[in-house]
Amino acid sequence: MKEKIRIASGQGFWGDLIEAPYYQVISGQIDYLVMDYLAEVTMSILQKQKNKNPKLGYASDIPELMKRILPVCKEKNIKIITNGGGVNPESCAEAILDVARSLSVNDLKIAVVLGDNIKDRIDDVIASGCELNNMETGESILSVKDKLLSANVYFGALPIVEGLSQGADIVITGRTTDTGLTLAPMIYEFGWKENDYDLLSVGTITGHILECGGQASGGNLLADWESVPDLANIGFPIAEAYPNGEIIITKHESLGGKVSFETIAEQLVYEIGDPKNYITPDCVADFTTAHLEQLSPNRVKLFGVKGTKATDFYKVSCAYSSGYSAVGSLTYSWPQALTKAKAADKILRERLDKLNLKFDEVRTEFVGYNSCHGPLADNIDEEKINEVMMRVAVRGNDYNSIERFGKEIAPLILTGPPCVTGFAGGRPKPSEVVAYWPALIPKKLVEPKVILFS
Amino acid sequence: MKIKLIDIAHGRSGDKGDAANIGIIAYDDKGYEIICKHLTEEKVKNHFEGICFGEVERYEMPNIKALNFILHNTLGGGGTVSLKHDAQGKTLAAALLRMEIEV
User: Of the candidates A254, A250, A265, which has an alpha carbon nearest to the alpha carbon of residue A298?
Assistant: First the structure.
């Protein structure tokens, strides 16, 4: 058994810093590179791409990234784990193997985790008595079944562990929990058992710390953000894990950013619900037992973590089509910037009313004044406001109404209040609204499959 | 004496469906005592009048001197449906830190 392993975060979401994983593998010793690519609605976007072209449906940045990091990873024996396989992990593996062949990187083994996609099995699932009720509203999925774009089960660490056990250099999954990506190498390397609840929980909380990349190493830090050095070259977080569950969060010394009590504490509270019950497919982790101690600059110890047995359910993330939306904006300058922006909004709404357009919601915000904090924003002396952006957004099921809204923004320039600009990029176009449907499914109804590609 | 919450605490916020999560972390023990005493569910709900239209739940995390708040019915339908500029509630931690407290 290894004395310790170093697990490096490479991406916090699809669209994150493209250079980050490259610097993680070249700037010092790591054993695993873990990359989270999937936000809640990403699967539905990928599903649409796969519907058009059966070779697509995975995070398309991956092959290009592999060109840069595969030779280094092979040389330094760094294993890669990512959920960027999306709805087509097999094609993602094939694309990586193509890259490997073109670089003469031989003997590459890629494990692919399948079985999370239950979209085509929804009827069977419902027939077996699981109506995939919405976790927030309690509604049965039957109400949106015809509009479903994707339905994926969140697997945990175990299928990845299975892939690593088969000798994989790279594990590509579809929908897997962000935390499972980081927990898996600990289970695999240290032989943690399924009833080692405290160990599984410390690995899970470590995964939560790594899953948003630079957000744990100085990015988006509310506590004295100006103290963070060299954000331009931010190093993403690295977890140093030991067999007894001791964890040190750190980063490569040569890179920017910082790892401190504050950077980790802010990430610990990020997007959690009841901290005593952080439910994953692997365990239920108790975040109120996660203690932090700053050992030295850029080294924070995580200890004391307790947890309990996992539940008998997987979470399912479904996406369905829910109408259209469009956003338009115009910028008004001093004098009376806010008064003019408000007047323009009133004129626009009067015109929309007169056209009898159908919207579920019309929302106006004034960027530069109150778009973030709404009624909590301080009143400002209008003499002192240099400019305000009027941002109007509409949503509804009637495509034509949303499209027509897009044609009513630009006319305000010549037919509304003065000193207005910022209409570049043409008429706002309707885009499809993809809504999210979280549900639970009994674990016994789903079986992860692991296939080795080489 | 009035103090601004931002002088004794930091935090981070994000989305959980149509609910926002706001984690507020005190810089020291004294600060944690203050936020535990003053940041009640009711007070946070009142602070977010016109923004939060549902229940507020509060959870204590003494291990890192933090309180976690869940603000239901706050994000205009949730991350993907919402028309809000801040559809994911990313700036709401700062909005809570605007609060002034009498100590």
Answer: A250
B94 chain-A contacts, CB cut-off 8 A? 222, 372-373
* A121 is a domain residue: no
Query: Which among B15, B25, B85 has CB closest to A365?
Result: B85
Residue A409 to residue A422: CA distance in whole angstroms = 11
Q: pLDDT at position A286, please?
A: 98
Mean pLDDT of A413-429: 93
Least confident of A130-134, A360-364, A392-396, B35-39: A130-134
Whether residue A258 sits in one domain with residue A284:
yes
Question: Do A238 and A351 belong to one domain?
Answer: no
Q: Cβ of B59 and A291 within 8 Å?
A: no
For the stretch A196-217, pLDDT in tens is: 999 999 999 999 999 999 999 9
- Look at residue A58 and tell me whether its pLDDT is greater than 90: yes
Residue A15 in any domain: the answer is yes
CB A299 within 8 A of CB A314: no
Closest among A251, A257, A243, A248 to A293, alpha carbons compared: A248
ipTM at complex level = 0.98
**Is there a domain that residue A363 lies in?**
yes
As a whole number, mean pLDDT of residues A121-141 equals 92
pLDDT of A41 over the 80 cut: no
A404 occurs within a structural domain:
yes
Tokens encoding A84: 């960027």
A418 in the same domain as A388: yes
pLDDT score of A383: 85
Contact B64 A269 (CB under 8 A): yes
Chain A positions touching B31 (Cβ under 8 A) are: none
The domain in which residue A415 lies consists of 322-436
Question: What is the CA angle B75-A379-B44, rounded to 5?
Answer: 40
Structure-token match 């944690």, residue found: B32
Angle at A390 between CA A388 and CA A391, to 5 degrees: 130
For an interface test with B, the pick among A269, A276, A301, A365 (most B C-beta atoms closer than 10 Å) comes out as A269
Could you tell me the pLDDT band of residue A195, with boundaries at 50, 70 and 90? very high
Shared domain check, A294 and A221: yes
- What's the rounded Cα separation, in Å, for the pair B16 and A271? 6
Residue that finishes a domain, picked among A255, A276, A311: A311
Specify the range with the lowest mean pLDDT, choosing from A38-52, A172-186, A280-294, B81-95. A38-52
My answer on whether A182 and A77 are in the same domain is: yes
Contacts of A365 in chain B (CB under 8 A): 84-85
CATH number of the domain to which A331 belongs: 3.30.70
Is the domain of A62 the same as that of A199?
yes
Number of domains within chain A: 2
Span of A46-50, A262-266, A326-330 with lowest mean pLDDT: A46-50
Q: Do B11 and A275 lie within an 8 Å CB cutoff?
A: no
Which of A208, A376, A391, A434 to mutate to probe the B interface, most B CBs <10 Å?
Answer: A376
Residues A351 and A426 in one domain: yes
Place of tokens 């549900």: A439
C-alpha–C-alpha distance, residues A430 and A398, integer Å = 10
